[in-house]
Write a structure and sequence with these properties.
The complex is a heterodimer of chains A (296) and B (549).
Chain A (H helix, E strand, L loop, with lengths): L1 H31 L6 H42 L9 H23 L14 E4 L2 E4 H23 L1 H11 L1 H6 L4 H24 L10 H5 L2 H8 L4 H20 L11 H16 L14
Antiparallel strand pairs in A: 1-2
Helix pairs in contact in A: 1-4, 1-7, 1-9, 1-10, 2-3, 2-7, 4-5, 4-7, 5-7, 9-10, 9-11, 10-11
Chain B lengths: L3 H11 L5 H15 L1 H6 L6 H12 L6 H6 L9 H14 L2 H8 L3 H6 L1 H17 L6 H17 L7 H10 L4 H5 L10 H7 L3 H15 L6 H26 L7 H16 L3 E3 L2 E3 L6 H18 L1 H4 L4 H21 L1 H4 L5 E2 L4 E2 L2 E2 L5 E3 L2 E3 L1 H25 L1 H11 L1 H6 L4 H27 L1 E2 L6 H14 L4 H20 L18 H19 L19
Antiparallel strand pairs in B: 1-2, 3-8, 4-5, 6-7
Helix pairs in contact in B: 1-7, 4-9, 6-7, 6-9, 9-10, 10-11, 15-21, 15-24, 15-25, 15-26, 16-17, 16-19, 16-24, 17-24, 21-22, 21-24, 22-24, 25-26, 25-27, 26-27
The chains are: A mainly alpha (296), B mainly alpha (549).
Subcellular location (chain A): Cell membrane
GO molecular function (chain A): transmembrane transporter activity
Keywords (chain A): Amino-acid transport, Cell membrane, Membrane, Transmembrane, Transmembrane helix, Transport
Chain lengths: 296, 549
């Protein structure tokens, strides 16, 4: 039972991190209808900046630069690439983001090389114990930070004029534009916000118990894709639920790997995808996604 | 239109001769078509796109039966698709049309006969032809017509859409002079079209290319032969992916999975039970050719198992769902050790076909020792040719129209009677079979399969290939595959003489693999933003107004 609770809490904490990534993914999709396959590389960019700069700037300074840097990279992708596309087919734009992803990931993995970069976080490998349950400080920090950021984001999305503009643009771009919402700014800010959220997530993907930032970190970041999809691509609630589900499932599958040995080693990495496929079989638009309706 | 009928019975005999066409065009044409044509063409000009669509669709019901016939502007048989439309359109103009009815198949004929239909179709063609310039005899006219066909193909909002028609128009080009010559051999450069085709640079180009490809094994060393084989295998897989993603609009990031299925199925089926690295490996020991065929079948089966998802999802949902396939595939490849050999992979038994074994035993032909690479070259070439022809047939025929319609407007396609889910699922199966064949070929070239190769990078490479080459066309897939798969090899070979690129393993500068990834990543972005249609349309950009893609 103790193990179960520990795994559950650890899973929730990882899930909150995945939710951060998925939230950015969903925000971009809502604002611009573009599926951003370059999201993992935004995350890698933020994580790389944090990890490289923490010696010079201290951890918090490096984190701030990492967040800002990832936001700038996201905005640059939007400004330099997405905005130049004149067609109307958004699935083609998804392929463009794959091209961008190839470029960014190649550059970043070349810089990272075979090194494993430590993010230089203050939590280290300390473990807190609550009765029989022990939990790493990093997991608690991840859970708190993610909860804080997600709440702030949702409040901003609901009450600030930026959030209203974003929701209006998602609802109906033409009308929003006629009402004075500047769509260019909306999509630019969506990409920047997504980059910033991804950079925070990058920090928590690379802290203890993982060894640090390495080439494979972008693979870990990809688990946010099933999170966003199984929640429903156009739903922020879905991103949260999807992230938590993915985190918990992964944590449990990894924790009980011994009992699941007939499925082979490393089933934990696969579990999120299997859950996603199962959900899509029953609900093709995800758990909270709006079913697509079309006027003919 | 009535003077068409008298022509019909007696023109076929007059079709073959080469000099005949000029006479037909000079004397015959003006009387039948020269006069009415501009009249017919002009009303269309203000809105060529719309009316072309309309007419093309309206034109179909006579030959087609039921509602789905309307949607497929071309009639039943594969291969007689758009060219039949063009041939039918050309018929009244040239007076040589009836012959084209013969070659263009059952579809062309009734329409050319039926007044409204033929008129309608003709309008599509002549409007574009007349935009290209009036002089309409000889090579210029043929050229104009080809461009016209391509331009009509650009209007992809219609049921007939971009990639297919223009690819078809290109492919049909060897036949075009034939129809211009009153022979109207439509698609096949048969005996009639062949005589007319001799004077054209395109024919020479193809001949030179064929001779070159056949002769290369005698001159190239093993490095380049392997590079070429990789390119051919990649081309087969890319054609499959282009059917799915380019022509049907179903994004798939799991293509590498099906390559793995093909490659490993071949190993399991063809190899005998063996022990590698102290590990017992299962093997059925079937003959090589049978194993290859079955492996393609297994890949198709794997695609079929995924059909509940492939048939229902689209866009990003499908893209990410297929991403799951990659991870599932990697998991299975690493864990099902008695089938796949786990991390170390397993050796690939050589293929044997018609008594020839494609292994490294040397056979000396014309003083050149033929080893596996040389022998496989021809097998791969043949496989690629068949795959390309089959895909072209699919794209140009009725299924191709249905696929394009699903891509362009799923609901409209459904309303017109296309079983959308079934088509999506079956295209997925077809594309995974292509991937399976490519996987078999790759395994044979590598002579050892390792799981790592079939990861996400490979899938992204295939997507890059079809985008760079051109979505939705066979030629685009082949061009893109050659570009993306030869690029790293070129950079590796000439790394010393290139700036910025360093030889692999020396550190400093870019490794060739990285440099090529930069190049094709950038190529994807640039092509989509500035070159809609990909490299395969590059040549046409000067003559064709920018399409709506």
């Amino acid at each position: 039972m103790t193990t179960f609770v520990e795994l559950l809490l650890g899973g929730l904490s990882m899930g909150a991190v995945y939710a951060l990534i998925a939230l950015g993914f969903v925000v971009i999709f809502k604002a611009t209808e573009v599926v951003n396959f370059a999201h993992a590389s935004l995350l890698l960019a933020g994580g790389y900046l944090t990890a490289v700069l923490h010696d010079d700037l201290g951890f918090w300074g490096a984190l701030a630069v990492g967040i800002a840097g990832a936001a700038v990279v996201g905005a640059a992708v939007e400004f330099l690439v997405m905005r130049r596309y004149r067609g109307s087919d958004h699935s083609v734009l998804a392929i463009v983001t794959i091209g961008v992803d190839i470029l960014l990931v190649t550059e970043l993995t070349r810089r990272i090389g075979t090194r494993v970069l430590s993010p230089g976080d203050p939590w280290g490998d300390k473990v807190a114990t609550f009765g029989p349950i022990s939990l790493a400080h990093t997991r608690i920090a991840a859970l708190l930070a993610a909860a804080l950021l997600i709440t702030a984001f949702l409040l901003a999305f609901r009450y600030t004029s930026w959030g209203v503009a974003m929701r209006a643009a998602a609802e109906n771009p033409q009308t929003a534009a006629l009402m004075g919402v500047r769509l260019g700014r909306v999509s630019l800010s969506a990409w920047a916000v997504a980059g910033a959220l991804a950079a925070v997530a990058a920090l928590f993907l690379t802290v203890f118990p993982t060894p640090g930032l390495e080439r494979a970190t972008s693979l870990a970041a990809m688990k946010a894709f099933p999170a966003a999809i199984l929640g429903g691509l156009d739903s922020t609630t879905g991103a949260l639920a999807g992230g938590l589900i993915v985190g918990v499932v992964e944590s449990l599958a990894t924790g009980y790997q011994g009992d699941l040995s007939f499925l082979g080693r490393g089933i934990g990495d696969l579990a999120p995808y299997l859950v996603m496929v199962a959900v899509l079989l029953i609900r093709p638009a995800g758990l909270f996604g709006t079913k697509e309706t079309a006027r003919v | 239109m009535s003077d068409l009928d008298p022509h019909r019975p007696h023109t076929p005999p007059a079709a073959p001769p080469g000099p005949d066409p000029s006479g037909a065009v000079d004397s015959g044409t003006p009387s039948t078509a020269g006069a009415p044509e501009p009249g017919r063409a002009d009303p269309v000009r203000p809105d060529p796109a719309g009316s072309a669509d309309g007419t093309a669709r309206r034109a179909a019901p006579p030959p087609g039966t039921g509602s789905s016939g309307r949607f497929a502007a071309a009639p039943s048989g594969t291969g007689s698709g758009p060219s039949a439309v063009r041939a039918a359109g050309a018929a009244p103009r040239e007076g040589g049309g009836p012959a084209s009815g013969g070659a263009a198949g059952p579809g062309g004929e009734p329409r050319a006969g039926g007044l409204p239909a033929a008129g309608a179709v003709d309008r599509t063609d002549s409007s574009s032809a007349s935009r290209n310039g009036r002089p309409r005899d000889g090579g210029e006219r043929a050229g104009g017509e080809r461009a016209g066909g391509e331009r009509a193909g650009r209007k992809r909002d219609a049921a007939r859409s971009g990639g297919t028609v223009s690819a078809a128009a290109d492919d049909a080009a060897p036949g075009t002079p034939g129809s211009g010559a009153g022979g109207g051999s439509g698609t096949q450069p048969g005996p009639t079209g062949f005589a007319g085709a001799l004077g054209r640079p395109r024919t020479y180009l193809w001949t030179v290319l064929c001779v070159l490809l056949l002769a290369l094994p005698f001159y190239l060393d093993r490095f380049w032969l392997q590079a070429g084989l990789f390119a051919m295998a990649a081309a087969i897989a890319a054609i499959g992916l282009n059917l799915l993603t380019g022509a049907t609009g179903q994004l798939s990031m799991g293509h590498a999975f099906f390559l793995a299925v093909g490659a490993y199925s071949y190993c399991v089926l063809a190899a005998g039970p063996s022990i590698e690295n102290g590990h017992r490996l299962t093997g059925l020991g079937l003959p090589g050719w049978l194993a290859a065929v079955l492996a393609v079948g297994v890949a198709g089966l794997a695609g079929g198992l995924f059909s509940p998802i492939a048939g229902r999802l689209r866009g990003a949902y499908l893209g990410i769902a297929t991403l799951a396939l990659i991870f599932i595939g990697q998991h299975v490849l690493f864990n099902a050790r008695d089938l796949t050999g786990g991390f170390n992979g397993r050796t690939v038994p050589p293929l044997s076909l018609f008594g020839i074994t494609f292994d490294d035993t040397q056979t000396v032909i014309a003083g050149v020792p033929f080893e596996s690479a040389e022998k496989l070259w021809y097998a791969a070439l043949l496989a690629l040719l068949l795959c390309a022809l089959f895909a072209r047939g699919v794209l140009r025929g009725r299924p191709g129209r249905a696929m394009n319609a699903i891509r362009d407007h799923r609901i409209a396609a459904g309303v017109m009677g296309v079983p959308v889910a079934r088509y999506r699922a079956s295209v997925f199966v077809l594309s995974s079979m292509y991937a399976g064949l490519a996987g078999v070929l790759l395994a044979l070239v590598f002579q050892r399969t390792v799981p790592e190769y079939f990861g996400m990078t490979l899938s992204l490479e295939f997507l890059a290939m079809i985008v760079i080459g051109g979505l939705g066309s066979v030629r685009g897939a082949v061009i893109g595959a050659v570009f993306v798969s030869l690029l790293p090899q070129l950079l590796t070979r000439y790394s010393e003489s290139l700036p910025l690129v360093s030889a692999p393993g020396t550190g400093g500068g870019l490794a060739p693999g990285e440099a090529s990834r930069y190049l094709y990543g950038a190529a994807v972005v640039v092509v989509v933003l500035f070159l809609p249609g990909g490299l395969s349309r590059l040549r046409l950009r000067s003559s064709v107004r920018r399409g709506s893609k």
